[in-house]
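Case study 2.
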Amino acid sequence: MKLRTKYILFVLILHLLTLVLAWFIFIDNKIYFIIAEAFVLISAAVAIQLYRQLVLPLKMLLQGIEAIKDKDFNVKFLSTGKLEVDALIDVYNQMMDELRTERTRQEQQHFFLEKLIHTSPTGIIILDFDDRVQQINPKALQVLAIDEKAVVGELIGELKHPVFAHIKALKSGETLVVKLDGINSFKLQKSHFIDRGFSRHFIMLEDLTAEILAAEKKVYGKVIRMMAHEVNNTIGPVNSIMQSAMKTDQLWAGHDFDPIKDALQVAMDRNQNLNLFMRNFADLVKLPPANKQPVVLQKLVESVVKLMGIRAEEKGVSLSLDLPEEPIKIMADEQQLEQAFINIVKNAIEAIDGNGSVTLAINPQEKKLTITDTGKGISAEQQANLFTPFFSTKKDGQGIGLTLVREIMLNHDFEFSLKTVAERQTEFVVYWG
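Prediction:
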């Protein structure tokens, strides 16, 4: 029962009882009865006044409590002129002012934090209490090349992108640099915060690809230039001496010296091969900016197939084309792009043991070229080092073929990947759009 109801019932019962008693006591004395009735009326008026002074303000404060429940901090009350009630009203009004100020401050901080997360140059992934993705900012979506709807609300361990497997394995406070496909490198940092008394995790994701590639190129460029300098300084004079000796007929009078002459020729040939070997490395360092001109992609692909046809035939590998009839023109450096495709097709042919096939297909809708081979595939360990300078899976490989492909693709700002997508199906994909 409400306090107001209790008060009204109490006042009614009390006054009715007083009237009944006055009737029985003063039934023979009308004057005293009238005086008693007047007293009851005055008491009722006082009770009504007390009701207005006490119960109504309490009712008003209850309305304020309802406003607090509804998170409406704009409801305030005017003073009533009654000392005790006004003290309560002052406390209530001060509390509402503090709550309104605090809510405004929190909303401003929340808006600033949301804005900061949204515009941050670092990818940020925020998880809920169950390690489901609750929020992911645009930078993280861009770096991972994924759609927001595909990840929000999903368990971190059930997402297919390989980065999420590394995120799940990370402990709070740990940092890890991962290289997924031999090209893209990411720095992952996992931390946590307290939300309503429980711990929640968030991940900061930074794309280090450009920085690592630049540092890598600087290092191997310096090494290659040093090697080329030393080799050229040695080969040049040595070959000059041997050529002079070969041209001096007096030294070769008679046939007893033919083996020596042959040995010198072999040494000169080996020096020439070494010079060519170093020139290949030097070409990697000195790769000029792409001279982009309109290129018909079909003609470029057909040219590569013609150039590699004999090598493929020797290994029993068939080269096939899946090209659209409508000419597709792209802006590219034809010589550089041709060299990159030659390297990829050459690797694809060499990856096939026995009979197999290499297919070059163009998808104009997705703006991509796919070179598929039926070779032995790429292992997980090889995948992480594919485009690393000097790394090669071949016994006599120099490790510059795929590195040159990488540099040419980056030179053109083309997205690309090389991976085994199924058994006997390895794909090199390049997007020109």
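The two ends are 75 Å apart (CA to CA).
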